[in-house]
Amino acid sequence: MHQELADRVALVSGAASGIGRAIAQLFAHEGAKVAIVDKNLDGAESVVKGIEKLNGKALALKCDVSAEKEVNQTVEITREQLGNVGILVNCAGIARANFLAEMPTEEWYSVLGTHLDGTFFLTRALIKDMKKGDRVINMSSMVGIQGQAFTAHYAAAKGAIISFTKSLAMEVARRGITVNAIAPGIIRTPMIQILLEVRPDFEKEIPTFRYGEPEDIAELALFLASPRASYITGQAIVVDGGFTLVNPTNQPIDS
């Protein structure tokens, strides 16, 4: 165990499952005390139990990141029980698909609220107290770079997160804080379950001939959170097994 994040405090949203879970587990393995933040408290507590079995320290907190009051309460509890947060990973997200002409207003607001407002609320609540060497890592998507039919709300939110990342990076660079985004491709999480059922052989269309795993994203998050990445900021790093190379216009994956 390298203990690359020893004595650091990390807050990971959307950490009850998928990519957020993998990031939280890896951070804890590397010595960080981790706040596991998610709407799914049972799932968050399950992650904490797994971390504690390996002698790590973690805290499960139920929070709807689109709700400002809940976010502020979550941050305060984290500070009280774990200490000041030095690594923030904004990973909470939901997936919806709809033609724009048929998209209900509440669906639009729900997707943007979780992805974009959640990123804003958590970052704003923590950034003032961050110091040199601290990190903000935002989860975007290859869809946020290229767009995709049937997911205008998701693509809009993920694209905005990239712009948010670049803008904040410029604001806090002189303080020694880095801000980066990760743009995953098709990662094997509950979000792509429908794709796996409808197109079980779709991985053959990816140059690496496999779907990404949550651990693939977690490894990059660990690097960005570590001192090794101190000269990297304002970037959106695509992790997609080369998918956008062969699908440059990002045609709908169910076509």
Can you describe what's shown?
β1 (9-13), α1 and β2 form a beta-alpha-beta unit. The termini are far apart. The chain has helices at 18-29, 41-53, 68-81, 105-127, 142-146, 152-172, 193-198, 214-225, 243-246, and strands at 9-13, 33-38, 58-62, 87-90, 135-139, 178-184, 236-239. It is built from nine helices and seven strands. It is globular and about 45 Å long. α1 (18-29) runs parallel beside α2 and α3 (68-81) runs parallel beside α4 (105-127). It has a seven-stranded parallel beta sheet, with helices on both faces. With 255 residues, the protein is an alpha/beta fold. The chain has one domain: Rossmann fold (3-Layer(aba) Sandwich), CATH 3.40.50. Helix content is 43%, strand content 14%.
Sum up the structure in keywords:
43% helix; alpha/beta; Rossmann fold; 255 residues; 9 helices
Query: Approximately what portion of the residues adopt beta-strand conformation?
Result: 5-15%
| Number of helices, where a helix is a run of at least 4 consecutive DSSP H or I residues | 9
Which CATH top level class fits? Alpha Beta
Low-confidence stretches: none
Q: How many E-type strands?
A: 7
Task: Give the full name of the CATH homologous superfamily.
Answer: NAD(P)-binding Rossmann-like Domain
How much helix is in the residues? Answer: 40-55%
Q: On the 0-100 scale, what is the average pLDDT?
A: 94
Any idea of the CATH topology? Rossmann fold
Write down the Rg.
Answer: 17 Å
H/E series, N to C?
EHEHEHEHEHHEHHEH
Name the strands of the widest sheet in spatial order: 3-2-1-4-5-6-7
